[in-house]
Amino acid sequence: MTEKVVIVGSGPAGYTAAIYTARADLKPVMIEGMERGGQLMLTTDVENYPGFPDGIMGPEMMEGFRKQAERFNTRIMSSNVTKVDFSARPFKLWVDEDEYTADSVIISTGASARWLGIESETRLRGHGVSACATCDGFFFRDKEIAVIGGGDSAAEEALFLTKFASKVYVIHRRDELRASKIMAKRALEHDKIEMVWDTVVEEVLGDDVVTGLRIRNRVTDEVSELPVEGMFLAIGHAPNTKVFEGHIDLDDKGYILTGRNTMTSVPGVFAAGDVTDHVYRQAITAAGMGCQAAIDAERWLDEQEN
Ligand code: NDP
User: Which among 25, 96, 98, 135 is annotated as catalytic?
Assistant: First the structure.
C-alpha cells in the first residue's frame, strides 16, 4: 500500500509534521529512528519554548509531542531508514528489508553531535569521553572535567555538569564565547567553572579511562597537560543525511537544501528542522518548519490529484 506521507525522523519537526498531516487526514507513517525524539532527549531544562513559563524537561516535552502525534493516529515505527529511492513516484524507502512506498516524504532526521576527530577521543568514547552531559554527567561526581566549545551547548553542558563535578574547565579555541549573553554570563560567573581561552585539545590522555588532556594555547603555542577525568564535546552538530546522499541536493556541509518553501530538490520530498537548518536550530523553529512541511506536503498532494 502506498502511503500518502512518510515522515522520516522524529524530534520537534517530525512530530509537528505528524500532528499536522494526521489532522489533515493524510494518515502519516512516521519512521522515528532508533533514538526517538532527537536532541531534546539529551537536554535538561528547556526554558525558551513559549507556553512553558516554568520551563520543561526536554524528554518530557518530546514525550508530549509524540503522544499528541499518536492521538491523531500517526503510525509510528521505531526504526531507522536504511535506503531510499526518490528517482520515481511513488517514492521508496527501506527499513532493512521492509519497503515503504509514499506519495510524499517529509525528512526531519535532525543533526548529531560533532567530534574532534582524533584517535584518542574515539578510543576513549564511553570511558570518560562523551558528547552528552545529561546522559553521562552523573558518572563524574566530585571529579574534575572539561567541556570543549564556546557556544550555548558548551555553556549549558558546563552549567549542568557543575551539579556533579568538583570543577569544570571550558576549553574554547577563541577568547570570546559564542553563547548567548545570558548563558555566557551564567557560565562565566559560576564558581566551579574555569575558562581556558584560545586553547585546543591535541590529545586525550589515558589508556583505559581519561586521565587528562594535552592542550595547546593557540596564541603562545604552549603545550600543557590538564588533569581531568572527563571530556565533554559541545562543538556543534552535523546533519543526519547520509542515507539521502545522491538522492536530493545537499549543501557542502551535508544539510538538505530547500527552495522557497520546505520542498527539496525532488518535488514531493520535503525537509524540516535541523537537517535543513544550521542557522536557528531551536525546538520552536524546528516545530514551525515541521508545520510548514506538513502544509506544503498537503498542498502539493492536492495539486497532484487535480
Ligand atoms: P555552535 O555552533 O553555536 O557552537 C559550537 C562551538 O564549538 C563554537 O564556540 C565553536 O568555536 C566551537 N567549535 C566548533 N568546532 C570546533 C572544533 N573542531 N574544535 C574546537 N572548538 C570547536 O553550537 P552549539 O551546539 O553550541 O549551539 C547550536 C545552536 O543551538 C545555537 O544556535 C545555539 O544558540 C542553540 N542552543 C541553544 C541552547 C539554549 O538556548 N538553551 C542550548 C544549546 C544550543 P567558534 O566559536 O570559534 O566557532
Answer: 135
